[in-house]
Give the backbone structure.
Amino acid sequence: MTDLYRVTHEVGDFSEYTATIDNHPGGGLSISTSAGMVGTNLGLQAQSTGSSSEQSYAYVTISPPASNLIRFRYYADPNNLPLATDGSDILLHTAITANAPFSSAGFFTASFAKVGADYYFSFSMTDDLTGSNSRVVLAGQSRPYAVEVELVRASSDVAADGSMRIWLDNVEQTPVQNIDNYDSFASMAAYTAGVVFASPTASGSIYLDEIVIRDHSLHIGPRSVRSWFGPGWGM
């Protein structure tokens, strides 16, 4: 089994992506040493001014997997991003969308939010019947996190047996099940990473790195545990 994409950023440019979108004044997207995580030299740095009209992200084009399952792992660091501490502000940093470039709500989205001193990850997947299904996961302090997600398509257009599973630092969270996503799953066209959407107070830079995308259910795991589990883990 092979991965669909692996983006390490170690080449020092954006050649591992299909394309980039950067309408931040002066440029808000870069491959930087500051964004390197878990022993890597380089990572993706995306800057936000807090304007929802400004986007700084890179994307790879994808097709709906014949396996009816997509799994991906990435590292994300909010980098002390200033967000309202009541959870009302977000910065959408990862999305699987029906279009490239991103112009509307995605089939899947992942965002940073903050309550008090703690950062949260908010994950959402489209439900063809109800609109969306979400799961909010407490992260804590600002630091790099290993995020792994598995999205499974419903078995038919009248079934509600799709699912979303999430791991944070290799710990599985409560899954979201019974999702009617048969039609929306078929629309996926791009995986985006960076500043996709930001609320007004979200002015700063975030870091993303070590993106692995696959169309099978073999667990990827954090990069740092590769030697523990052998081939297929911690890519």
User: Anything to note?
Assistant: The chain has a mean pLDDT of 89. The first helix runs from residue 182 to 185.
